[in-house]
Amino acid sequence: MPPAAIAPWQGPGQEADVRRWILGYAILAPHSHNLQSWRVDLGTPGEMLLRCDLHRLLPASDPFSRQTMMSHGTFLELLDMAARERGLRAEITLFPEGEFAPGQIDQRPVARVRLSPDPAVQKDPLFAHVLQRRTNRQLYDLQRPVPAAAWQAMADAVALYPSRLGFVGMDQAGLMAQHRDIAAQAWRIEMVTPRVVLETYQVLRVGAAEIEKHRDGLYLLDPTVVWLNRFGLFDRSKAPAPDDYATTSQIEDFGKKLASTPAFLWMVTEGNDRRTQIGAGRAYMRVQLAATAQGLAMQPLQQALQEYPEQAAPHARIRRLLGAPGLAQTVQMWARVGYAPPVDPAPRRGVPALFA
Fold this sequence. Notes:
The protein is of the alpha+beta class and about 350 residues long.
């Protein structure tokens, strides 16, 4: 991993403009496919205007930009925490020029943030874990169940947000088997749906040089793949066939990861408008920081929650399993949880990229 690509994880340095210091933490928020589609305007003193970069969307796998809006929620939650660290109140006004339609987003602001000194503002203890937070996609330790105290800490972290947090562990083997089966089915569908695979390939960075150049997206540092790519033998212009090794090996590998998972967590909201999606992202940010504080690893399983047609069957199955079968409720997050060895942080584009 190129050091420059993960330098933001050391935290921001001294900044003449406190807003840039705050943004130095906000950019560490998780984002679907690590696209970092945040754009910020600092034109008005004491304010920040957050927009979405419409060139950094996932129309194939996230056709209604639900996950993208959640990713703006994670950004705003870290922004709020960082402001509190500096004794500032962040007054966040969502969609000041109008809320996006359900089917698309546009150039209007996602949020306007006004900062003001406030001696009554309280620091958030979860902020201490921002620099250690990771999305861990590796094998977990099946022999270590998630303790009740950790689940309670995660529930407490989102108590102020209107979402239903649920979880299941190894003491419910039947339910765990259903979770694994749905996740495996959804992953298999994603791996054999060409336009979705190609969308992932567009943001896949192979080797240190590509990672350092882009500092976003998903990445591979496996020496074999890097070697194949260097000699033009890893073709990202077309999706592999369902029976190709590139497909079957990923399905098999993901199956092993599911088999190693000792627990699953989910978040369900009433409704699914844009404000609710933002709120769900803020809640997930807090859940993951609380898990980090407990020494736990976490990885979102968004495949079955995605709204493209091929995922209809696992989408319906997970909704039924989690008690959200109708249109009134939405499963916003589903994740595997457990103990795992530490992993490197994901690349970050840095604060200047927010203004590009």
